[in-house]
């Protein structure tokens, strides 16, 4: 049996004003009719059955999330009382899966990424499943870089160890945090450095063993929580224990220190859609390079992003701008400043404009 853990607790602040506290990025539709979360679940069909999919989310948007994925059993939607990054999030799901199958294989993935080549992705999932189940290995997926990118982490692959049909399997030599531009250019030219997709496959017992080795404080508190699972004491234990967990990512807390990790190049049309400026990666552009969701009319307008479902956006004589319109807010910014939308969200909170968050 193969299980999936979908990490859906993020706030998606860089996609304000479409993304809000109660309805964040993973629950909105950026590239089609389905939300990013719904698309993530659909990409598992035929590989991981719905009853084996676990989603970890936050209390603030758990209700909206449940409405989007009715095929996922209610008990498989795990609600964090507070966000504690990806390592505790995955650990919480691992405890639940361990109760069903102690040596289960699981794939852990973010809820808010786009994969255009679903067929290729499912084949890589099946390859990873075999490596995890039969050999107990940790498997990660590297995205072939198309540009020097300073917003992503990187994985350096070593030589090819084997292959599974046409799929090469490499040894992972190192994980690198977001580099400066010069380093990113060198990574691009090297040919063996890949973007870190945030996807990792491993067995539940392997995950928890590595957590014990590298994050013992996380593992200890999770085991305290496990004693209450399945009982009426669990909600109280979760509220008391989970906030005491350190906030740490899987990459920084475990994967960067683990040995003998396998890497698979994943040319699957992947994008993390990290800000509004990334929409051209997942949506077709018009003859002037404009990408739009909703009704768009541009005169002497080029290389812009317009997002306003159910609305008309009309522009004249602009270039390289982002325009996002919702029922109560309008965002206009240069594409080069898309990452600063998070700063604007912080400013809204500071200035007492929480009704727009």
Description:
There is one protein chain. With 357 residues, this protein is α/β, with parallel strands linked by helices. The chain has 2 domains: 2-271, Alpha-Beta Complex (Spore Coat Polysaccharide Biosynthesis Protein SpsA, Chain A), CATH 3.90.550; 276-356, no CATH class. The chain contains 10 helices and 15 strands. The protein has helices spanning 36-42, 62-68, 86-100, 118-135, 181-190, 204-214, 216-226, 234-241, 250-255, 341-350, and strands at residues 2-7, 53-58, 77-80, 105-110, 114-115, 138-143, 154-164, 167-176, 193-203, 261-265, 270-271, 291-299, 305-316, 321-325, 330-334. Strands 6-9-7-8-10 form a 5-stranded mixed beta barrel. A 4-stranded mixed sheet has the order 12-13-14-15, with no helix packed on it. Strands 5-11 form a two-stranded antiparallel sheet. The longest helix is centred in the middle third of the chain and has 18 residues, at 118-135. The two termini are 40 Å apart. The model has no long low-confidence stretch (mean pLDDT 95).
How would you summarize this macromolecular structure in one to three sentences?
The chain is of the alpha/beta class and 357 residues long. It has helices spanning 36-42, 62-68, 86-100, 118-135, 181-190, 204-214, 216-226, 234-241, 250-255, 341-350, and strands at residues 2-7, 53-58, 77-80, 105-110, 114-115, 138-143, 154-164, 167-176, 193-203, 261-265, 270-271, 291-299, 305-316, 321-325, 330-334.
């Amino acid at each position: 049996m193969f299980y999936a853990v979908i990490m859906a607790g993020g706030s998606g602040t860089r996609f304000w004003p479409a993304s809000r506290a109660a309805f964040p990025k993973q629950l909105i539709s950026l590239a089609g009719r389905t939300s990013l979360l719904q698309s993530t679940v659909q990409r598992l069909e035929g590989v991981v059955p719905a009853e084996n999919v676990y989603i970890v989310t936050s209390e603030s948007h758990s209700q909206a999330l449940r409405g989007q994925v009715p095929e996922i059993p209610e008990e498989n939607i795990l609600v964090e009382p507070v966000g504690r990054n990806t390592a505790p999030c995955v650990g919480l799901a691992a405890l639940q899966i361990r109760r069903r199958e102690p040596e289960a294989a699981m794939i852990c993935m973010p809820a808010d990424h786009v994969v255009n080549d679903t067929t290729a992705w499912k084949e890589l999932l099946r390859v990873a499943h075999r490596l995890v189940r039969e050999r107990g290995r940790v498997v990660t997926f590297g995205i072939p870089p198309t540009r020097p990118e300073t917003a992503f982490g990187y994985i350096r692959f070593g030589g090819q160890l084997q292959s599974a049909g046409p799929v090469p399997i490499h040894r992972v030599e190192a994980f690198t945090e977001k580099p400066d531009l010069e380093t990113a250019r060198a990574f691009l030219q090297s040919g063996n450095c890949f973007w870190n997709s945030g996807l990792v496959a491993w067995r539940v017992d392997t995950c928890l063993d590595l957590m014990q080795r590298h994050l013992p404080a996380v593992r200890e508190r999770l085991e305290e929580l496990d004693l209450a699972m399945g009982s009426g004491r669990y909600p109280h234990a979760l509220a008391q224990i989970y906030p005491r967990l350190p906030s740490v990512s899987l990459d920084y807390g475990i994967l960067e220190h683990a040995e003998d990790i396998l890497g698979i190049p994943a040319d699957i049309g992947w994008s993390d859609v990290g800000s509004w400026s990334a929409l051209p990666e997942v949506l077709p552009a018009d003859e002037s390079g404009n990408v739009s969701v909703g009704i768009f009319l541009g005169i002497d307008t080029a290389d812009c992003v317009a997002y306003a479902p159910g609305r008309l956006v009309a522009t004249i004589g602009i270039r390289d701008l982002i325009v996002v319109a919702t029922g109560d807010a309008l965002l206009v910014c240069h594409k080069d400043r898309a990452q600063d939308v998070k700063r604007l969200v912080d400013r809204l909170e500071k200035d007492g404009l929480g009704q727009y968050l």
